[in-house]
Amino acid sequence: MTPPPSAPPSSAPPSSLDLVRDHTLYSCVMGSRAFGLATEDSDTDIRGVYLAPTPLFWHFDKPPTHLDGPAPEQFSWELERFCELALRANPNILEVLHSPLPLAVTDTGRELLSLRAAFLTRQARATFVGYADSQRRKIEADVRRYGAPRWKHAMHLLRLVMSCRDLLRTGELTLDVGDARACLLDVKRGEVPWPEIESRLHRLVNEATEAEFSSPLPALPDRARVEDFLIRTRRRSALVYGEPV
């Protein structure tokens, strides 16, 4: 669904949350619902990308690079920051680009989504596994302190590395866990001992590392293509909004 275009702003700068309400170019559902792991108690996590009007960057005080809200469990990034993180193969950002549950997409949002392949590289092995390792250390601290992990976190740890392995093998990032749903929910319910989870994680990391060497993905992102999109988008915004706001 394409929202109606925003009207040019008044002379007053928009508030931070107005940037999300009036200038979002893409939003989607993330979390367990996007991963095919939702249960009755699952939240609805919303993630999005907004385009701050170009004249806002002409002030000393720049528009925010990210914002919480206005809805509960909602978080958004300004387009440039979003692209910067995607070019670094940030796992959370890449997953937002591949959500199977879009909520709103403008013409510019569709152009952003058409660039998904430009961000996917073999660098995902380092960023996904690196993020997973930081989460594993936090879980191990919980095990030492409480005698057990936070089972939901353990489930998503396995899901993340599984997703990375499959991305490197196929060149495509698929969020829905498919046939792995049952075994992952067993982990969430605390039915799989932590040592077994560690063993699975170790195996998945090894499989992801092996997949990197024969991956169909390029070594580096198409930065020039993404930058061209960003420049053209900023220029269009400047023409629409004209004078500084």
Summed up:
This protein is α+β, with helices and mostly antiparallel strands.
Give an account of the 3D structure:
- With 245 residues, this protein is an alpha+beta fold.
- The chain has helices at residues 16-23, 32-35, 79-87, 91-97, 107-113, 116-119, 124-146, 151-170, 181-188, 194-213, 223-241; strands spanning 24-30, 45-50, 66-68, 74-78, 102-105.
- It has a five-stranded mixed β-sheet.
- A hairpin with a 5-residue loop joins strand 3 (66-68) and strand 4.
List keywords for this structure.
globular; Beta Polymerase, domain 2; 11 helices
How is this fold's topology laid out?
Layout: H1 16-23, E1 24-30, H2 32-35, E2 45-50, E3 66-68, E4 74-78, H3 79-87, H4 91-97, E5 102-105, H5 107-113, H6 116-119, H7 124-146, H8 151-170, H9 181-188, H10 194-213, H11 223-241
Parallel strand pairs: 2-4
Antiparallel strand pairs: 1-2, 1-5, 3-4
Number of H/I helices:
11
Kindly report the CATH topology of the largest domain: Beta Polymerase, domain 2
Strand content: 5-15%
Rg for CA atoms: 20 Å
Number of domains: 2
Shape: globular
Report the end-to-end length measured between terminal Cα atoms. 28 Å
Q: Which consecutive residue ranges, at least 5 long each, have pLDDT under 50?
A: 1-12
Binned, the helix content reads 40-55%
What is the total tally of β strands?
5
How would a crystallographer describe the biggest sheet? 5 strands, mixed
From the coordinates shown, what is the CATH architecture of the largest domain?
2-Layer Sandwich
In the CATH scheme, the class of the largest domain would be Alpha Beta
Structural class, please?
A: alpha+beta
Run of helices and strands: HEHEEEHHEHHHHHHH
The order of strands across the largest sheet is 3-4-2-1-5
Average residue-wise pLDDT: 92
